[in-house]
Amino acid sequence: MIWLTESYRYIALVIATMVVAALFYPQFSLNHDSSWYLVATRMWLDGERLYVGIIEINPPLAFYLTAPALYFAGSVGLAPTTGFYLYTVVLSGASSLWLMRIVLRANLSTGAQMALLIGGIAGVFVMPVREFGQREHIMLILALPYLYYLILGDRGAPIKLAERIALGAVAAIGLALKPHFLLIPALIVLVAPLRDLFSRMIDPANLTLGTMLVAYAVFIAAVHPEYLSQIVPVATQVYSSYGGGWVQVLLRREMFALLCFVALCCCRGKLADGISLRLQGAIAGALMAYLLQFKGWNYHVLPFSFLLMLGSVWLFWARGAFVRRDMLVGALAIVVLVLTLGRQVELGPYRAPTTAAFAPFIERPDMPVLVLSSNVFASFPFINEVQARWSSRFPAQWYIPGAMVGLAQADCPREPQQCARFDDILFRARTAIIEDIARNRPELLFVDVRREKSYFEGLTFDYLAFLQRDPAFDPLLASYRKVGHAAGYEVWRRQGD
Q1: What mean pLDDT comes out for the span 211-222?
Q2: Cα(193)–Cα(190) distance, rounded to whole angstroms?
Q3: Of 63, 161, 304, 381, which sits 20 to 30 A from 38 (CA to CA)?
Q4: Average pLDDT of the residues of the chain
């Protein structure tokens, strides 16, 4: 009876949170990556071929996860962005209710259960306030029930075979978005006693996860072979230039929060219960995933930040009596909470960087537009918010910066093959841009003319001069005239349009 009472309360809390989120998030800009996926997925559904007519560095799962949002939005007459927000809210709510089913049946005190449940709600509804719908957020939504199942370990109630298979299957969909994510469950499994390692590895949830990941790899090779043959080779050559330096990666509030969490765990051995240890394994896996990407971008740190927050909440509430006897423990837990959840709340909803500057040049919906920039955020969500038609196969010109930097740093007389690879990548980028302009006839070109362009590491680069190395570009450019400047971009309009 107590279990049912707590269930009703938690269901009511989840429903209320869903309603608030559904009203709150659509008022703000959608993050740039999710905005690009809405546009690119629509291109794909309309017949463009992934990794040929749409050039994206990530494997195809994100497109398949975005498609239901577009079908939903179209079926009820909503804008794609609004439909995507509501779709993500519903997924978050379903994940939260599945957490309830797992946690409320576990062998835990009511306070410990509420700590995990409220932490889960915060993780899928509040902490991603700036990154709502990003792949890291979607991963958390889909994988959290499975991760909770692993973290609870022997404190969890027995779960039927069908549900354990479902936990692994749904988690696989989220974790497969990026291979780095797999470090999180791997470290949870590894931190427990070695004598039980084999039995944990062959748990039906883990076997299902592994089977689906293998099936996904086979699916990519069979259905989207261009990803492996075209995108991966280029990405290994040039994508390392994207991201910040070590300062941006390491000097974050979350890293200070990690130091506080380590101090919190070391305060008393009594804190080292099984759940705490498995949470520490999850945190270590998320930290490794963040560092392997080494970009320093806020959404990359989201899983690590969430698990740090959850760990501090667990230690604060589940060990409440001990916390009250040692103020240092309580203070450290609160500091971790402020530096993780508080930091994301402080950032607030995503704000479109270019819409206000670029929108005055847009005369009507469905106007074909192309932005020449190395930044995805230069084009998205601007394109979605003005309802323009995107006229490029790229979300941003991500081929170019790494190849330019690579050429500048290479010793071409001694490394002719390496320089030839960079030259070929630049040739392919130039050819693709010119083909897109010729085919799609964008009415507006926004050209990045900032002196310091992102990811070029200080190199001077001129997009128009780069394109003019191909004689086919000058006749195309002749049909445009420069009509203004906006936020460091030249604006060119097709004559007669």
Answers
A1: 98
A2: 8
A3: 304
A4: 93
